[in-house]
Task: inverse folding
């Protein structure tokens, strides 16, 4: 697969919208501005030492910054970034330079079967409405022995869950869906994946200034940042595996 191949879906996809974060005067650029440290930490969890012959999917890539960061630190053969946010995908396209990345505004992966060695999603699982369908789509998009890494803040366990849900849903084009860790594991297990997890310990200082984060107390911020952030590893078995 080449990043220059034509895309299978058209702009008539009725699940698409312009930007995910719809706060007036803000928008998806504000999220990209905040997520650099998070991506840097997340990408450290990829166990594959060399991606030079790998094809990579970023599910929910928004403006595409994470794939650009990955390519610039650990080059891959080619990549596709998909998102529902049309305008953010346009921004991603305008910023890709000559990196071998294709960005698509689409709600479906059905045209991408058996294509990827590696799939990634950063802070997207909690927006997935039908986790069963998502697990099946990623399973079929991956090649045998392909691996899906998903970073996941476990909002359900946050001490301020109800408040953070309200704050996110106020401006999010797709609302937060409270999947438990248990249900995510069960769903990916049923789809055929071997499921692993690591708890993420911040590598940079956690910003505690009041008004500059999602928390109304320092204790809540520390608990959420140190106890409830994870990276899942979902591994597709080899062909003809007995498992
Ligand atoms: C919280 S943002 C994270 C964006 C980016 N991954 C990052 O780390 O900065 C979640 C993104 O997932 C996208 N998204 C949500 N549901 C999706 C779906 N079913 N298919 C593709 N993208 C989706 C949203 O449009 C949004 O851009």
Result:
């Amino acid at each position: 697969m080449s990043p220059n191949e034509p895309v299978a879906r058209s702009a008539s996809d009725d699940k698409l919208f312009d930007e995910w974060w719809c706060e007036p005067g803000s928008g998806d650029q504000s999220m990209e501005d905040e997520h650099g440290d998070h991506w840097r930490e997340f990408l450290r969890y990829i166990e594959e030492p060399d991606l030079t012959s790998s094809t990579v999917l970023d599910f929910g890539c928004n403006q595409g910054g994470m794939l650009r960061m990955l390519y610039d630190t650990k080059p891959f053969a080619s990549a596709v970034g998909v998102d529902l946010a049309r305008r953010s995908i346009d921004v991603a396209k305008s910023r890709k330079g000559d990196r071998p990345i294709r960005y698509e505004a689409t709600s479906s992966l059905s045209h991408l079967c058996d294509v990827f060695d590696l799939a990634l999603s950063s802070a997207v699982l909690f927006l997935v409405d039908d986790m069963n369908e998502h697990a099946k789509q990623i399973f079929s998009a991956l090649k045998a022995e392909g691996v899906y890494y998903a970073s996941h803040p476990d909002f359900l366990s946050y001490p301020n869950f109800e408040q953070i849900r309200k704050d996110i849903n106020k401006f999010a084009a797709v609302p937060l869906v409270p999947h438990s860790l248990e249900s995510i594991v069960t769903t990916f297990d049923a789809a055929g994946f071997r499921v692993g997890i690591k708890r993420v310990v911040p590598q940079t200082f956690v910003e505690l200034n009041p008004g500059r984060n999602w928390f109304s107390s320092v204790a809540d911020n520390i608990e959420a940042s140190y106890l409830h952030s994870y990276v899942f590893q979902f591994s597709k078995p080899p062909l003809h595996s007995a498992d």
The chain has a mean pLDDT of 93. The chain has one domain: 28-235. The CA atoms of residues 87 and 229 lie 29 Å apart.
